[in-house]
Amino acid sequence: MKDYLEKRRAELKKRGNKGFTLMEMLIVVAIIAVLIAIAIPVFTSQLENARDATSVANMRSAYAEAQAAYLTGTTGGNATVAADKSTVTVANVKIESAQANEWSQQAKELPFKAPDDPGTAGNRSIVFTYDANGAITKAEFA
Asked: For residue 87, what are the CA distances in angstroms to 9, 84, 118, 129, 136?
């Protein structure tokens, strides 16, 4: 057995070391694991930010639809105008998700005051309340 090992070592020396040692492989795996551990929380938070931005964009579209319905006084699509034109309800507004702090930051971009907490994800209805001058005084989820 000893002779075999010596012959084997001699053969390996002739060919040269062309492989990675176990220690080198473990170090590479450890580095990759650390990078993944750092990347997952960053990716998750960016995904939540994107969902919140999508929700705000959908609310902006609902606002545009409500304004068009209010100005024309017609009900159609997802918008329903009240008989006295005091409210316009826009149905099927997709709310992706909600992180209260991110939502409130991005919702400041809207041309109306959005609710502080949109609640659960899903298709929601937004009721826009108008004053006598045609300005939105309140927007809330129905």
From this structure: 87, 8, 19, 4, 9
State the first-to-last Cα distance of the chain, in angstroms, to the nearest integer: 82
**pLDDT tens digit string along 21-48?**
889 999 999 999 999 999 999 998 888 8
pLDDT tens profile 53-110: 888 888 888 888 999 999 888 888 889 898 888 999 999 888 876 655 556 666 777 7
DSSP bridge partners of 90: 79, 126
Q: What's phi and psi for 13, nearest 5 deg?
A: -65, -40
Domain boundaries, the chain: 20-141
Predicted TM-score (pTM) of this structure: 0.68
The token duo for 37 is: 């551990």
Instruction: Show Cβ contacts of residue 139 under 8 Å, excluding neighbours closer than 6 positions.
Output: 63, 112, 113, 114, 115, 126, 127, 128, 129
Of 121, 122, 131, 126, residue with least CA distance to 142: 126
Determine the Cα–Cα distance for residues 125 and 62; give it in Å rounded to an integer: 9
